[in-house]
Structure formats: C-alpha cells, structure tokens
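Q: Joint fold for the lines below.
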Amino acid sequence: MSRCLGDRTLWRLSEEEGSREERAHVTSCLVCAARLRRLEQDLRHLRSALAGPPPPQLALVPARPVHLRWATAAATLAAIVVLAWFGGWWQRASSPPQMDTRQESIWLLIDGVSTDLFSTVEIGFTVTPDRLSDLDDLQAALAGEWRCEAPTAFANVDCDEDDTWALLLAEP
Amino acid sequence: MSQVNAGSLEPACYEDLYRGHYPRVVRLCGLLLADPHEAEDVAQEVFVKLLQALQTETRAMAWEPWLTRVTVNACRDRRRSGWWKRWRAPRHTSEADVSSNLEHLSAGPTPEEEALSREVCWRIWQIFRGLPARQQEVFALRYLEGWSTDAVAETLGLSVGSVKQHLFRAVHRLRAAIGEEA
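A: Joint structure:
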C-alpha cells in the first residue's frame, strides 16, 4: 500500500480496527503516522474538554433555534402580505384606462339607443293631439254640435283656421 | 461493563445503584442537555424509574446499560418537549453568556484542559451542541462513558455500522474546533 490513508481509515485504526496492510502502512509512512498521532491526541482533547461540566448557559439547539423558525415564518408571512398589496396596487394602477374605455363605449351605446328611441325626425307623420281641447271638438263633432262648422266658423275665435278651411274644402 | 444484580426489591440494592451510578447519570445528562439543573432533574427522573423498575422487575438484569438507555431516552424526551425548546432557544449564545461560560470552563482545569485554550474548549462544546442528537449520544457513550461500539449499538438500538458512521462524523466535526486553533 503506497498511498496515504484516508481520514476514515485512520479513525478506524484509532479504534483498533483496520486491516494488517493499513497498519503496516502507518508504521512505514511518517505522514500517516503523524496524522494518526494527531487524531489520537485530538480525541484525548475532545474527551477532556467534554468530560467536565458543561457550560451552564450553552444552548441546546444551535442548528436551527425556535426563534429563527418564527422569524422565517414571520418573514414569509410579511412577503405574502407585501406581494398581495403590490398585486392589488398593480391591478388598480393598470385597470382605470380599461374601465374608461369600457364606460365610454357604454355611454356611446346609451346615447345611440336614446337617440334612436326618442328621436322625432322620422315620426313626424304621426298625428298626435296637440291640445286636449281637440278631444272636446271631436266629441262635439260626433254629436253634431261642432262650433267650427261652416258658415259660422269664421266668426268663432276658438275655431282653428286650418281645420276650418280643411273642412270647408273637403265639403262637396 | 459491570453488571449489578438487582433482582430483589432491597433498599440496599437501590442505594448501591444510586451511589454507584448517580454521578455518571448526572454527567451524561449534563452532556446531552447542557444544563446542570436540567441534568439533575432528569437524573432524578431516571432514578425514580429505576426504583419503579426494581419494584416490578424480578429477573437479574444488567442495570448499568439499563440506566444508560433510560437516561439517553429521558434526555431525548426532554429535548423534544416543546416548552423546553422555547425556553432554551432565546438563551442561545449571547456575548455575556460566552464570557461567563469561559470563566466557568476555567474553574478547576484538568491537565488536558490546561493544554487547550479556553476558546477551544468553548468551541468544542459549541460544536458538540450543534451535532445531531444521535451523534451526541453515540460520542458520549463511546468516548466519555468508555463503552464499546457493540455495547453502544445494542443500547441505542442501532447497527454497529451505523454507530461507527455517527462516531466518525461526530469526531470529524469536533476535530474542526481543534483544527482551527492549530
């Protein structure tokens, strides 16, 4: 065996294990012999340091203490809150132009519909009673009491001139 | 490993076990819990269990490994209890604690301890605290209690290969504390 031994093999030798070749290598290799002596010395130091009473205030959980776990959870929660807030803000910031366009198109549609519904341009031929008194005149005419009948209609100021003339012209 | 036959319920037997093993159990608890008060507390629990076991167990038993196994399990239970973790965690390595602990470590040094600087001792303890529980237990039983690898494996319910794996990893990490000094 010409190559130097690994740490694990040296440790097994310190545990009085290992093969005969490995032991032979340690006796012939100065480097490995020094490494083995150093390992055994370190083990003695470790035993000595840990054999005494433990430091009273030394904590037990150094790898990942509970308060660090709480800090991680709090940081995660804060990140979620910030992301939610930013998402809401971004949505509000980007949505107004879309709403304006949509509202504008809606108002245009409403205007168009109202114009079409309530326009009087195309329904001028429709006769609608202008006055309520026309109904009275119609009732009077049907009853034979219409005051605007010729020839006295010209003298009556209540008679509509156009209607009178129309009646006169329509007579045979 | 000495075997104590405590098959009969005799006060003297409990007394013998108590006198012979209480300091060792306290030391093991202190090593695994890093708190002398907790160590005393758990050690007393262990000996209460021993008393109960002596009252019920009629067979001849090897009480030393029994005590060690119960001690390791009790320490593990204590470490797993949530309130204890919460109580311990905020006290983790403040600067004031470091200085007081260095003073504590300097009290009554052994010749080997004198060879080590106080900082190295402190670092060794810190790294030991950072080891997984299983590595701490294996290291303590093998190197501090002086048990054989086979006995450690039997007591902890592990295979011999697993014990060696834990041991090597623990030694490798602990040597780093000394290596930094070198």
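Q: Anything notable?
A: Residues 13 and 182 of chain B are 49 Å apart (CA to CA). Chain B has ten helices and no strands.
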